[in-house]
Structure formats: structure tokens, C-alpha cells
Amino acid sequence: MTEIIVVGSGTMGTGIAEVTAHAGFSTTLVDVDTAALQRGMERLLASLRRGVEKGKLSAEDEAAARSRIRFETTFDPSGADILIEAVPENIELKKQLLSSVGAKNEATLLATNTSSLSVTEIAAACVRPDRVIGLHFFNPAPVMQLVEVVRAEQTSAGNIERATELVKRLGKTSVVVRDVPGFATSRLGIILGMEAIRMLESGVASAADIDTAMELGYRHPMGPLKLTDLVGLDVRLAIAEHLTKELGPQFAPPPLLRRLVRAGKLGKKTGEGFYVWSGNDAQKKPTV
């Protein structure tokens, strides 16, 4: 059985581990922070239970997926076929992690779940840069169909094929893009999200009405402001700042976004952003 290690038990790492286990892969979810790992385990198991409750997953499938997952604070990469890192968006942290794993197992496919950082720069820190690739999953990973496969300058054709085959086995659809700032999806998503915030800031419409316009007018499954709440305002701010530096002022974050982040209103994870959150339910805010 293919062995997959997912490093980082935050929202994305937990979701990716659920996807790989459900698809039949032996999966180890790793986090050096014991408390974070415990929260990730609880979140993953709760997600599987909800799948059964909603009739999307049989009790047998839930039990099988659970049996394929291990939760660890340390790991041995020597037997891993694939490692997917989902640690915070810090390029030095990602470089250190993947270079250390690659030095211990030159056969492992090394995947980064970054949404905007340079996969080429991360690969350059590794012993076998041809085995480094971007696998950009979307939140929530168990639900979202797309995985963006990001080709670093050093990634070999064989490992691109290996990555796209993995995505197919996960039951998802891949698009292959070059390693440019923001790739395809973050670049388009951030420009839309920043403009939606500017519209809210200037009083064009309420957050809920801006989102409804995009959901019903353009068939987006979720409006850009609610999506920003789900991703995290701090995460979107960091990506916007990175793209502004790399590509230009069209990605510049509006003052409203900075004010909310400074106030600790980061979206769903803190209970308030452009909406007020109660669990998975988003309520309108009269003002921001």
C-alpha cells in the first residue's frame, strides 16, 4: 500500500489526510505540536462522522478510512512514497522540512501545499529538486474537486505524471501550471477578493450582497468575502502582500483588510471577519 505522510495538522493538512485515507492510502498525519495534533485528529474524525450522518459515507467506509490514519508527533520518512507538507506559509520552514526529508529518502515525492510561494525556490534547497512539486489543495479539501499541480523549474516530467496520477486516484481533478507567483488560482482569487473588499470599503454594497451577486450572477459556489472568511483574513493578507511585491499594485490589500487583521478578526477561525460565525453558519454584520 502506498504510504503518504502529511505534515501539519491545521485545516488544510487535516483535510488532505482525510482525502488520502478515504482514497485508500496508508496515511500518517504529523504535527510536532501535541495540542494541535489533537485538535486536528478531532476535526478529521468529526468530518468523517458528518459524512456518515449526511449519507455521503457508509459506516464501513468511515471505519476503513479511520483504520488507515495514524497521528504522530514524529515520523520516519524512509518508507514514505509521498510526503505532502501543509505547514504555515513560511518559505524557510518549508525549505528546511522538505530538504531534510529528501536527504533521508531520495525516492519520496516531495509536495508542498503552498498557495503562493515559489516551488522552484523550495526545490532548490533539496537534494533531489526534480522530486519537488506543488500540490495546491483547496479548502475544504474533502469537498473541493480541484488540485493545482505546480511545476517547479526542476520538476521532472516523470514526477509531474506521478503527481497528476495521485490526484486522479484521490478522485479529484488536476490542472498543471508553471511556478509563477500566485500560480493560476491564487492570482485570480486574490484579485477578485481584494476588489470585493474595496467595494465593501467604499460602500458599494454590503458583504452579503456582494457575495450573493457573485454566487447568483456568476455561479460562484461562494462569494469572495465569505471565502476570505473561510480561508482566513490573515492568510489572504499575506498572499496579497506577496503578490503585490512580485507582480504589482493591483494586488495591494485594502486598508479595511489590514484593520480587521490587526483587530484579530480573521474570519471563521476567530468567529468574526466579514461575517459573524457560529460553527459553520455565517451571519450578516450590520457594519465592518
The count of strands amounts to 10
CATH fold field value of the largest domain: Rossmann fold
Major β-sheet annotation: 8 strands, mixed
CATH class term of the largest domain? Alpha Beta
The CATH superfamily of the largest domain is known as NAD(P)-binding Rossmann-like Domain
User: Number of domains in the coordinates?
Assistant: 2
What integer value in Å does the Rg equal? 19 Å
Class by SSE composition: alpha/beta
Please report the distance between the alpha carbons of the first and last residues. 50 Å
- Residue-averaged pLDDT, rounded? 94
Give the low-confidence spans: none
Name the CATH architecture of the largest domain: 3-Layer(aba) Sandwich
Tell me the series of helices and strands, N- to C-terminal: EHEHHEEHEHEEHEHHHHHEE
Helix content range: 40-55%
Q: Biggest sheet, strands in spatial order?
A: 3-2-1-4-5-6-7-8
> Number of DSSP helices?
11
| Proportion of residues in extended strands | 15-25%
Based on Cα principal axes, name the global outline: globular
